[in-house]
Amino acid sequence: MKTFKEWIDHHIKEMAIGKYELRGDWDTSKKIGAQTGFRSTNNNYSSKDMKLVSGKSGIERIKNRWLKTKNTWDLYFVRSNIASKFSEIGEVDSNWIKTNLQEDIQANPNAISIIYTGNAAGDRTPMTPWILAHRAAHTLFEGGMRSFALLLSDVLKKSTIAAYGIASDIQTNRPNLDRVLGILNSIGTMKSSTNNSIDRPGEFVHELVAQFLISGRIQFNSLPKNLLSSGTYHDNPDALNKQNIKRDVSRWEDEHPGVDVHSKAPGGGPHSVETYYQRLIAPYSDHKVKEIEEEKIKAGNAILQASIPELESSIQKICDSAVGKIYLM
Ligand SMILES: [Zn+2]
What we know:
Helix content: 40-55%
Bound molecules: zinc ion
Number of domains: 2
Strand content: 5-15%
Radius of gyration: 22 Å
Distance between the termini: 34 Å
Largest sheet: 5 strands, mixed
Number of helices: 13
């Protein structure tokens, strides 16, 4: 049983960043970072990342934006060729760290320790305070975060059954993926959702955790009022269609560097640019809107809003159980 003071300390006092350590070589003139193989990206710190995590104002910003979390977080940024070979490992211990990273990092019994070894997505996603929180969610997922994803899935199912008579959840794959993404981009209040840029349900889970760590709470917008006949929900179907096309095209461009997706390739074989472009755009051209009764949307929203405290405490529980452990992102 906790004393009242301990309870107050735990629930009221905001903890945030404990240790903040830069390890390895932070000389900007040196190129450090291993090829990970995935799309031949480097797990390294871009010059922008180095500014964000090792510059004086960058560090200040991170400390200021991580103030709402109820736990203490020890953040370690390791910059070395050896360390850059490892990412998204999940829980590790000081022996593993000594052997693999050649660093001495001890678990802090009063903090959650996270080690960052670089940023494989540095060209697209710089290491802002928000992204560091998002990445922390990734690595905590290697442990117990799945229970949160299951709870969220359950909440989404219940609220979409109430609103649309169809269970939509984050475990869905194609062909219902667009519908789920439409819902997630509608209900999310973080930038990634309002920009319509959540392109995988799992990312929404990490974004909610980041929102909780940074702002201290989860917030949902309303469920979309329209159901599209092709299965996509959104308040603004035209915007969603454009977003989906943009998303698929940019993903295609990512996978085919140097090829202009708008150019017409001769031949028309299965991998020609022209065929691919048609395939990307065609699925979004025949959406029909079906309006859902307001009462049903209200019922779905009520379930969604009522679930927030439980979702928040689920993340908090996972964070609490990560105290005293070390995670490698
Ligand atoms: Zn992510």
